[in-house]
Amino acid sequence: MNICKRLDIYTVLLSLLVVFSGTGTAPASGQSLHEPWSTLETTHFRIHYPDAYKDWTEHLARRIESIHDRVTVLVDYEPAHRVDIVVADPLSMSNGLALPFLKKPRMVLFTTPPFSGSPIGFYQDWIELLAAHEYVHITHLIRPSRNKIDRFLGHLVPVGPIARKSPNWIVEGYATLLEGKLTGRGRPNGSFRAVFLREMAIAGLLPTYGELNGGNRWAAGAFPYLFGSVFLEWLQEREGPESLVHLWRRLTAKKRRSFNDAFKGVFREPPDELYGKFKAETTARAMNLKRKLEIDGLNEGEPWQKIYRSVSPPSLSPDGEAMALVIYSKNHPPRLEVWSTTEIDEEKKKKYDDPEDVPDKPAAPPKRKVLSSLHTRNHAAPFEPRFLPDGEHIIFHRFMADKSGNLHPDLFLWQRQTGKIKRVTYQADIHSARPFDEGRRAVAIRSRFGKTQLVEVDLLSGAVNQLTELSLDVTYSQPVVSPDDKYVAVIIHKVGHWSLSIHDLKSFELKWSIGNGTEVLSYPTWHTDSESIFYISDRSGIPNIERFDTLTGKRSQISNILSGAIAPILDPSGSFLYYLRFWTKGLSIYRLDIPENPDPGSIVVDDYYPILPPRQLQAGLQFEERSLDPARPYSLGRQEFSTVTGFGFTTTGNGLQYGLRMGDIIGRNETILLGGITFSQGPVGGTVRQRLRRFPLEIFIQAFWCEEQLQEGKNITDTSKPLLDFRNYGILSTVSWDRKSTAYSARVTGSGLISEKTLLSIEEHLPRNLVELSGQLSFRQGRDDVTLFQHFQGSYQLGSTDDGVWTSSLSGAMVGISFYRSFSVYASYGLGALWGDFHQSDLFQVGGWRSSLLPPQALTNRITQPALEPGVLCGSEMERSRLTFDLGSTLPLVLYGEVFRTESSASGKSDPIRLLGLETRISIPQIALLNFPHTFLRLGVAKIYDEPQQDQINGYALMIIQP
Q1: What is the CATH number that goes with domain 635-961?
Q2: Is residue 443 within 8 Å of residue 502, measured between CB atoms?
Q3: Whose CA is closest to 544, among 295, 196, 298, 292?
Q4: CB 819: neighbour CB atoms within 10 A?
Q5: pTM here?
Q6: Which residues belong to the signal peptide in this entry (predicted)?
Q7: What is the dihedral of CA 14, 15, 19, 20, to 10 degrees?
Q8: Which fold has domain 1-142?
């Protein structure tokens, strides 16, 4: 289970790249850039959305101005610029994103609603809560400085002083605090934050002040949200509700202050010292509650398995002798394992002869024997495994990429004895499957366009039959069918609250509905007699296991737990339950005997907030609906301008490029105008680029003019220099087609170039035209910690230079292996051949670099290596070998060795040139949301081992704006 509201920074960046790199998504998701999009405008917002998300967006748009009014009053600031909101769903997960740029604020809202029992599942209206949280970020962080120096810095780095100076616990804690005040729900008012705070306080393991921003501990990503918000509440209680606004004003004052200085001026003491007092008070309150509950009598069961970090809700086999669950580890991909419930893992112990030694006292139950495990492939983790009645098959869902790389949940069947996996559905957006009808069918949830519905899936054919309509007003979660196949129980969110609804499976007639209007119910599981059902309810202030008797309509509380229970599952004997329990380093499994005469349940009435949720929920601020103007087609979108920079500094030439980028917020259109200068010798000129993604095929056009004169390197010969100093102008047009999946990606491009090249040394004018067909194909095969990947690329050109017709080909292959969150090793090999009536300037030239002014098709014969002088090798055939060791997440460094060789009919095969280099390489795709073009940064140094540059050590720094 993921206890964080958000994904980590890597996932957020992945979201940006998927949505706004212009790759689009499959038509089924309604997010493809060439599919219909529209824009709704209100007084303070522009909302851009795929037409398939119209209902979700209109629901947001009717309330967004009211959200604006409420937020600006609480934060005491109103943004001066209209906020652009993009509605999308690239990961099929609940999330949001705020980018508080001073003049171009952005919000991205992902439409999938959270499930019942989620850390962010306590809400009246998910869309309101999500928008309010993200808009608090904008309003809070965009407040401008009144200091002249800070205002100047805002032109260089377009974020305000609060965003620059505030720690993350302030940023996320404040938005979480106000999500509670604005909606009357959210994490400050729910039981999840209280569980987290209570358990860690009792264990004496509340985060240190340094850990408030996150860290290496389990669930540290949740610390800024949960502990940041409750610490801010505590500070407001000491200094008054206006104290935080005073802090924002001091951070943006004419007098420049650090965060600590601004904080101390409001709260009288430094933040770390006050946090220490907060920890002491919170721990004391938690210990008092612990003593009270122990006196009243706890019923928590017995520890069955201690698990470090997270684990999925478990599933039991029909005979109760096996348990399936997904283990989530920090350093390894998630893995699905099947444990024995009767056998333990016998560890072989070495003989140890010391009769006076004292043996270990067992700190936890022994590890269970692993009966079978499913290897995670291509990092597509399994979720929510459930046994079929045969005890051999397990159904689960994975998030699989569509043809444009966006993720959708689909169902899979695993035969655990043979290891065979069968995919049941394809791009169906189906998850949370629960089998019935002897394993032939399953009930499940479909989540699409921000809406959910209950469906029935034929596990043999994959056919999907809807049991309810796709709905924005009703959220369905966690269905389960009774053992006699008569009833289906499902958690639903409707009219602002969660309830457990039990329906007749055939007629779908409502039989029972459980819920008091404020509690969160989750994780239902039927009794073997089909006459009662167990589930989780937090109506006592603590998530406990309850039982509902369908014959009497009576609710009774089964457990009395200090921390909180999650995901109960009944043993087939019907006498006890397994459930997950939170502890400070993960989620452990407990076993609880079912009492014969359970307690009807009691409400904790003592005021232990925030160790417990508030006794009475506030109504929250009402967001009234307002009328909307008609939406307009997005077309090419509103065009925005930004500056772009490229450069290259090597031993034989340098250049600086600077210009303007114009584009829309989702990436349908991009225009770049660049000019280039050199400080000694290098490329000068200009270029205009136009990229259009309005159609299924990407269209790119570039006009360019470039003059390049290289420094007089001692190894550039008199015969090769006339080929290297040139003036080139022309126009290029390309059409590209892309496809992606979880295991592969492909790109095919057709290009046409019309140009004229002038060799400056001899004033020879050479018309040079060509057509090119190129392709790239990448595969990856991941299994647990190891991923094998292959990349193949090739191009074929038919061209003419000064009336001479020639053909050229370039091909390459790369194979490698990467280790999960560690390092990669890969080897590549490339070949090039030129034949026909070519000019000497068409020969392959090894060395040098290509600036942002020229497209690759204008210099296809240049085999770039910035540590080498351009033209150090020339020939009609080329060979390149490279071995790379990439430290990956350990360090952003690449160690590589490279060998070049050329051959020509005149001079034969050249001696190889070998070099060893160390560099940083960062390739950033176009991110339209950030007004950022496709850019490649390369900083490094290399030693050359062969003539004519033997023993030279050359450095280089390149930033190329890619086509």
Answers
A1: 2.40.160.50
A2: no
A3: 298
A4: 13
A5: 0.93
A6: 1-28
A7: -70
A8: Zincin-like (3.30.2010)
